[in-house]
Task: inverse folding
């Protein structure tokens, strides 16, 4: 079945850029998403990219998609302590079901 | 804004109890989902539903059932709770095949 992989932990200093990476196996995924989960909360949609795009920028966030390598990344510029959270990569499952397949989540720690 | 409400933030139950987790969404979404979240495993889909009285198994349905009698409400049922069902349970809804909106989660502890 579909598999989505992320590294589990990333630590950066405040003001640096953060890059969170994700790989997936199903090349038919139409939409690819990044969700953020703050402590004690549910998941909040951060941004998403359509599969026919290779880049999307939204303020401090840049999403890069390499379809050939099945690689998705999220770059956060000027990382702040408020960006500390778990970040989940998710891809739409096969068929038009609305299902999302999630990675394990990357915990981003921002040090002052 | 879409609101997905889970009835309990924390629940503590005993092994063998029947447990109901309730979820309500207010945006007339067709699709509703139940995931469980465990450290290092991410989110795993338990069940989902496309419409009232419709349900489909996800990746880990064993030990769970669901009910969708009304469009806005999707219930997850643990018929006989076990300790390995201690987890964070997340409900989500979406319009057709669009992006998911999540509730705040229910942290269930089974003792």
Result:
């Amino acid at each position: 079945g579909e598999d989505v992989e992320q590294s589990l932990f990333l630590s950066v200093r405040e003001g640096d850029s953060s890059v969170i990476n994700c790989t997936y196996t199903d090349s038919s995924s139409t939409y690819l998403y990044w969700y953020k989960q703050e402590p004690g909360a549910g998941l909040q949609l951060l941004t998403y990219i359509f599969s026919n795009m290779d880049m999307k920028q939204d303020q401090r966030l840049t999403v890069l998609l390499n379809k050939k390598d099945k690689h998705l990344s999220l770059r956060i510029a000027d990382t702040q302590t408020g960006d500390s959270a778990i970040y989940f990569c998710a891809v739409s499952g096969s068929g038009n079901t609305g299902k999302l397949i999630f990675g394990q989540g990357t915990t981003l720690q921002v040090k002052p | 804004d879409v609101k997905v409400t889970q009835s309990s933030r924390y629940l503590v139950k005993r092994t063998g109890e029947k447990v109901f987790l309730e979820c309500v969404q207010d945006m007339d979404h067709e699709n509703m989902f139940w995931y469980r979240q465990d450290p290092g495993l991410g989110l795993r889909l338990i069940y989902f539903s496309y419409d009232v009285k419709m349900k489909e198994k996800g990746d880990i349905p064993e030990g769970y059932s669901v009910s969708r009698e009304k469009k806005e409400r999707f219930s997850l049922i643990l018929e006989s709770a076990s300790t390995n069902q201690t987890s964070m349970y997340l409900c989500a809804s979406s319009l057709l095949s669009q992006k998911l909106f999540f509730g705040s989660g229910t942290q269930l502890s089974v003792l």
User: Anything to note?
Assistant: The CA atoms of residues 13 and 110 of chain B lie 5 Å apart. Chain B has a mean pLDDT of 93. DSSP finds no helices and twelve strands in chain B.
